[in-house]
Q: What sequence folds into this?
């Protein structure tokens, strides 16, 4: 089990800079998601770590050893492709045995290893099938078994769940996490699905236009986004812009406090509040002083367990509130309401 | 609706095969004057065995077709692989240039080759026909193998490399087996293109050295005998077999690489 470090990676395709000085440490045995919109460079970063793409600058090292100059076939990585890339002319067993054969592991030893991973992915008895005789979920598991049977130094997953339907995908997420824990492999997972990234990962790195904008635990990234992009890409967020005045943020008649440290008096600041952190009726005499902000209710979107409330503030910008449908005592549409939330949920973000 | 569709299809097939059917039937008819009813006989086939010029032409045809098939498949396959896997300047231009020869009338190609071969001193004869046929067949090979290459997705080679294969090993262990049906199909197609070629062969043949189609044509000019029906029937059989094999293989090649 080794860690993976990338330092100051730059990659240009013609005039386009795809990765712009990316540095990140992937700790041994951890499951890290690279999350970002298409074109953010996440797949290119994965392919640089795999060795399919050579960076213009920067280094990749496995366990402290620089592998930047090593081609993919010498790096001992396990990779699962978006399309699974199973060899159609080989049986499941031969697919899984391929990497062992390349390492000189053959005969009974190889068979035992194949059986071990088949058991791990719950596909015992499927070893003589051809890939096209398997369902999408089964092909996915064969691809995973093939990638981990060689005990690679790092497991790389390129959106492997995106071709599955929703229900199957959720099942596979649980499976993938179990297999990753049991094998203890350092895992890097590329996805554009934020929910998947939060559910699966020990750590999430958010990429935007060739840079990692934030890297941390899922709760850290979700609860304390550092930029407007991170806050809006991962989950929903309400954004406010005001001015610093005497230890609080002023927006019109409202004075809002935060636990984050504020910049100098008079500077403009933007902060984000998650929609589920807001409420309509806050105890006025609570132990904690709450932030309050006036708005007009525009629409209620009922969705069974929860409802989404769309509101407009005095300047006309849209605000969003998520609430559980516990007592259903909602204000009516068009009503003037007062939103409240805790200062600790008032997160300063940079633009 | 189904009945109409089927009748229409039958009419089309009849339109395609009726002349050939009559020719084959007459090859087995003892009468040289196309008299009906047909009196079954193999005499025209037996007569073929004694026709020395026809036999020589057949040998020439097969030799040229075999040579064409091997050389065009080799050259065309390598070109296809380069076109689909390597990025280099002018690739799309080269790719575009490989296909128009299929649409150029053989009369034009034949004339051009004749002029060019005379000018360069290659001249006419067996070797000239071989060179000419290879040139005619290469675009078809590129087309067939290129389609096969598209079915072998790049990520299959990448998967092999991630598992420890060098690019050469990935090609041999993964791409080649998946491409093999397309390569064999291309070889059969090149063989058929050469075997059935008349115009270019006619231009490049010399009085003593001709191919089967050219020989059949000159026999007809000298005077039509039912022997022509017999040799044509055999020719038809071989060509049909080649095309059916090709269709079978290129189907396989197309499906195997996909999920």
A:
């Amino acid at each position: 089990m080794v860690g993976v470090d990338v330092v100051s990676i730059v990659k240009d395709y013609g005039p386009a800079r795809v990765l712009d000085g990316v540095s990140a440490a992937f700790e041994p045995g951890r499951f890290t998601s690279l999350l970002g919109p298409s074109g953010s460079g996440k797949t290119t970063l994965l392919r640089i770590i795999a060795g399919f793409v050579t960076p213009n600058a920067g280094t990749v090292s496995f366990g402290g050893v620089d592998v930047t100059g090593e081609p993919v076939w010498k790096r001992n990585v396990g990779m699962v492709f978006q399309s699974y890339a199973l060899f159609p002319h080989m049986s499941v067993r031969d697919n899984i045995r391929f990497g062992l054969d390349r390492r000189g592991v053959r005969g009974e030893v190889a068979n035992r290893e194949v059986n071990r991973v088949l058991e791990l992915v719950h596909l015992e008895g499927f070893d003589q099938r051809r890939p096209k005789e398997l369902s999408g979920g089964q092909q996915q598991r064969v691809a995973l078994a093939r990638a981990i049977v060689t005990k690679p130094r790092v497991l790389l997953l390129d959106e492997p769940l995106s071709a599955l339907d929703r229900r199957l995908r959720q099942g596979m997420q649980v499976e993938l996490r179990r297999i990753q824990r049991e094998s203890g492999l350092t895992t890097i997972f590329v996805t554009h699905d934020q929910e998947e990234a939060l559910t699966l990962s020990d750590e999430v790195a958010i990429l935007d236009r060739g840079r990692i904008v934030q890297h941390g635990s899922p709760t850290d990234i979700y609860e304390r986004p550092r930029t407007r992009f991170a806050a809006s890409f991962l989950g929903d967020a309400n954004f406010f812009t005001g001015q610093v005045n005497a230890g609080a943020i002023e927006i019109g008649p409202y004075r809002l406090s935060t636990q984050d440290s504020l910049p100098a008096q008079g500077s403009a600041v933007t902060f984000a509040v998650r929609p589920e952190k807001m409420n309509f009726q806050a105890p006025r005499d609570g132990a904690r002083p709450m932030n309050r902000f006036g708005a007009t209710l525009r629409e209620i979107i009922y969705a069974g367990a929860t409802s989404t409330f769309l509101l407009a503030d005095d300047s006309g910008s849209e605000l969003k509130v998520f609430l559980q449908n516990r007592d259903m005592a909602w204000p009516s549409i068009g009503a003037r309401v007062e939103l409240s939330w805790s200062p600790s949920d008032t997160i300063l973000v940079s633009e | 609706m189904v009945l109409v569709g089927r009748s229409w299809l039958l009419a089309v097939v009849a339109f395609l095969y009726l002349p050939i059917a009559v020719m084959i039937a007459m090859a087995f008819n003892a009468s040289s004057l196309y008299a009906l009813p047909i009196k079954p006989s193999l005499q025209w086939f037996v007569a073929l065995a004694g026709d020395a010029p026809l036999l020589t032409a057949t040998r020439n045809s097969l030799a040229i077709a075999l040579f064409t098939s091997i050389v065009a498949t080799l050259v065309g396959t390598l070109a296809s692989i380069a076109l689909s896997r390597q990025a280099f300047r002018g690739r799309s231009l080269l790719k575009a240039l490989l296909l128009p020869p299929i649409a150029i009338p053989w009369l034009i190609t034949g004339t051009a080759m004749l002029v060019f071969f005379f000018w360069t001193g290659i001249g006419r004869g067996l070797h000239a026909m071989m060179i000419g046929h290879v040139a005619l067949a290469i675009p078809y090979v590129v087309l067939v193998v290129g389609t096969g290459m598209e079915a072998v997705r790049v990520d299959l080679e990448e998967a092999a490399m991630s598992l420890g294969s060098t690019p050469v090993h990935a090609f041999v262990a993964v791409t080649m087996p998946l491409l093999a049906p397309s390569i064999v199909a291309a070889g059969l197609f090149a063989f058929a293109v050469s075997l059935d070629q008349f115009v270019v062969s006619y231009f490049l043949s010399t009085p003593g050295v001709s191919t089967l189609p050219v020989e059949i044509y000159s026999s007809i000019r000298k005077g039509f005998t039912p022997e022509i029906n017999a040799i044509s029937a055999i020719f038809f059989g071989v060509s049909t077999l080649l095309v059916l094999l090709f269709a079978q293989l290129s189907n396989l090649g197309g499906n195997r690489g996909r999920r």
Observations:
- The mean pLDDT of chain A is 90.
